[in-house]
Design goal:
This protein is an alpha+beta fold and 227 residues long. 29% of the residues lie in helices and 24% in strands.
């Protein structure tokens, strides 16, 4: 998978970026969880635990939570305040904008947003998987560790990160290589870890059933002769 060919050579690889330019910007198809609090978020602090609900009520509230999807036009529809265009905003900017809308309904609105579908895809030697991103500053090493790490059969010097039309080559085989090619991931990235190819091992796997059959037949012949 993802080998370089005549249409895409090493010269076409993008330059590795050490850091992302600013915080993540919201885009269409992002799924959001919205929490709205009054009195400047007093309920979040609640030092005397005077506003706590029982565990059963908390579980029911969690099950009843809704996700709000940013549509293709950049709008997300929220209860009471209607449509808001959030495309291109950071989470902080979106929280401030939504809070200002809710201020017409509540006093001292405090808003928290969370993106629930931030994920990257890991393919190749680790076996493949989808890794959820817990925060905006998640590095490739964190993602690979979450996917189970690099196996002995992985080419650590030839890891490809595919981001839209850009392809980066990551080298984690040496300390210096890791320092030069370390970068953070963004939602939708595909990380491919090329495995070492061992033709002799594949050949052995292919002929193993035949060898097993021959061994069984020879064993049966020896048993019959000794009867």
């Amino acid at each position: 998978m993802f080998r370089l060919d005549k249409d895409f050579t090493a010269d076409d690889l993008s330059e590795v970026k050490e850091e992302l330019d600013g915080n993540y910007k919201l885009m269409p198809n992002d799924a959001l969880l919205l929490d709205v609090f009054t009195n400047d978020g007093e309920r979040l602090i609640d030092p005397n635990q005077e506003m706590m609900t029982n565990p059963g009520q908390q579980q029911q509230q969690f099950r009843d939570r809704f996700q709000y999807i940013i549509q293709a036009n950049g709008n997300a529809t929220f209860p009471m305040i209607g449509d808001m265009n959030l495309e291109g905003m950071t989470l902080f900017e979106a929280e401030r904008a939504i809070a200002s809308k809710f201020d017409s309904v509540y006093k001292g609105t405090f808003v928290k947003l969370r993106i629930t579908n931030r994920r990257v895809f890991v393919l190749g030697s680790p076996g493949g998987g989808v890794v959820q991103l817990p925060n905006e500053n998640t590095s490739i090493i964190e993602v690979l560790a979450s996917a189970g790490g690099l196996e002995m059969g992985a080419k650590a010097q030839n890891i490809k990160l595919i981001r839209g039309k850009e392809v980066y080559r990551i080298n984690l085989s040496t300390i210096s290589g890791m320092k030069e090619t370390q970068m953070n991931v963004v939602p939708g990235d595909v990380i491919y870890v090329e495995p070492w190819r061992r033709p002799w091992l594949q050949t052995l796997r292919d002929v193993s059933p035949a060898l097993s059959l021959v061994s069984s037949v020879l064993t049966l012949i020896v048993v019959v002769q000794n009867l």
